Amino acid sequence: MNQFFQTRKVAATIVLVGIIVLGLTNMVYAFPVLSEVVRTAFADDSMAMRSKIATIEASVEEEFFGKNMFIEGYGLVQSVLGKQTIKEFSIAKDEDGNLHYVYFQTAEADVTGIGEATVSLAEVAEAAGAEFLCLMPPSKMIEGETTFEAGVPVPDENAATDDFLAYLTEHEVDHIDLREGIAESGIPSEDWFYSTDHHWTTQTAFWGFTQLVAYLESGYGISLDPDGFYTDLAHYNQILYEDDYIGSLGREVGAVYGGVDDFTLIYPKFTTSFSYFATNGDDVQIDMAADLFERSLLAVDQLNTDLDRMEADADKYFAYLWGDYGYASIANDENENGIRVLFIKDSYGVPLAAFCATTCAEVDLIDPRWYEGSIEDAVAAGDYDAVVVCVSAPNLTEEFFTFQ
Amino acid sequence: MLFSSLTFIFIFLPLSLGLYYLFSFHKGLKNVILLLVSLFFYAWGEPKFVFVLLASILANYIYGLLLGYFKEQRSLAKGVVVLMCVTNLGILYVYKYLAFALESVYTLFGISSVVPSIALPIGISFFTFQAMSYVFDVYYDTANVQKNPFYLALYISFFPQLVAGPIVRYSTIEPQITQRVESMDKFGLGVCRFVTGLGKKVLIANNMALIADNIYSLNSIEIVPVSLAWLGAATYALQIFFDFSAYSDMAIGLGLMFGFKLNENFNYPYVAKSATDFWRRWHISLSNWFKVYLYIPLGGSRVRSKDIMMRNLLIVWLCTGIWHGSSWVFVFWGVWNFLFVLIEKITDFENLEIPNWARHVYAILFFTLGWVLFRSETFAVASRYFAAMFWGNGHFWSDYTGMFLREYFVFFLVAIALCIPMAPRMNRFIVDKKRGAAVLQAVYPVWIVLLFVVSVSYLVVGSYNPFIYFNF
Of A31, A153, A203, B367, which one has the fewest beta carbons inside 10 Å? Predict the structure, then answer.
């Protein structure tokens, strides 16, 4: 009997020491953030007490010391159990080991509303004298290629995309479907997307840029790159960060479960001069004076290999244009007589617009999630030569089509 | 605050234990600390409801004093008990049942009026029953009047069992408030019990909840195939057992850490061989409460006619049903249980010559179908789900069934294994020093630490963490 209690005391001691050490460390580690959260929550009289408490609890969880270590532990357990779907069926591994956002699709996506919004915006653009184009990036759920074990709750993104593009065709709104032709891009299919992220790779985004330029030139007679100089990858530096990138999916499940990606940074070899401004509202967030592409359009701090890959501020994809902003504007001082393009985009548009900027005088970006003004007004009054809607398949939702 | 939350485990718990043992030299101070941390724990959920709790404590304290005063005058004492029931059940009624009652009346008479939305104080059903237990115990002379309001407050608000039980009878706790002895043995057992409960909750109940919730959600869109419907029903049965029993494990473990010994609340209910047997093993503290304070005072089974016995049973089961939630579905769920228990009583089911396997199958069907009803917000949802279980979709198999089984087979195996009484047998094995016991002893701390680390990993990742009994 004595030994029975003895083993429990040993176990209890270890657990208790763990709780105390981790508890104290957390209190010290999270104190600055937590005290600020508490101060802000209690200063806000409009906030219900229950919400204040929920905010504090959420902060404790968010700022938990050693969080990434525990995420890796969680990922390890999922790997050992051989799980293909994790995090409440929100992330799944395909049969090649790539991560995807998934969910139980309970009904076919109805794209009529976003189709109508797009048609209506096309009319605004036409009235303003701008060409209007929908650019559909390739889907990570590649038809016929991306396969999952039976029963994994994979939404049919391609069906929704087909419906959306069919709607645009029916209403004579021009579009490019980059799902087509990617097989001929010369990029190996395993490099089209990051395994740990939902985005296309920078190489694929660059290919997308070349397709867009080609389409604008052939379809609309807009001269962007008559010599094929800017769309030639040979005129760009490519820095490979081998096994040094973990995307947003990977950060949720850890490197043990999700693996690590290579990341290729692509930036011009040729002389460039860009100024860049980005904001999420009244406060100016980024304001870069004219400088080289890699200085003004790249957040080089995010490329630092000493950063913890599991942290969001080490996301190399979002080094381009410093990430997503409600409104951003790139001015190309080397091509002041070029065209002005507006991208209405999700995060797929970030590297695409950065590359596009090399061929234009000005590229503006609006992210409907955070843009506070009227997108219709921006299109009508912006004096753009072209307006490009670039929203990827998973985001064919009303959140990204806020215009009428 | 959930026990299975990082805030509780890494902030509230160590601070509470630290403060408690810092004042361990003084019994009174220890209880004051425990009372304060308990009130803080309750206020953390919704601060304003702490006043409901304090009002309940104060009212029942006064009723206790009045009972002490009218001890020799039984009719007056009875009056005090009636008043106490009206007060406690009145508070419970306003917060838990008023909206439901109004909605029922409006529906019945076709009145188009807005039903007020009344927020439910967390754990009100639990602490109200605890408070009533005190007055009843004083009335039945099984406990003394508590003169110290802080001690009564501690009994009612003791945080380990405050919001989800076990519903501890006052007579069980009374001596422990002043005479409990903390020990390393108790503490060690308590921590291990807490970690076991945490693991059951985070790793099993929460994962089962994910499957069950998704299947119920899918069924609300389109009637699902048979296999998926039965899997959903089975996973919900596992979810509710592990959710609630894990919370009881954690409560008992926490109690032990502070030197208290709380009663067991579950005794492997899923190995039951009948509905009656199931209810002897499930939520024992609630069943006991109704038995001691309602069924027996009504006359219980020792009454002059079977009609009265049936009436008594019906009252108890209607109360049990409605205690779980304010909807007609819960009332019907109470009737469902009543019917099975009654038929078993009438047929003397437990003494019939029926093979054990058939008894188990019968009991499993009884509680699984009962849980479908319990899980459904409305009769329409329930009937839709029953339709799915009995071929409403016209198909047997779904790829989702295969995926759920494949993805969670380890959790299913562990859950089923934990539904049978293996742990007590293993403990006996160790205590009796059987061959191999030393290995189990050596592995035990490793297992507990691993269970804790994995559970915390799930919490840090922010996994699905619902808790069914918070609604009661």
Answer: A31
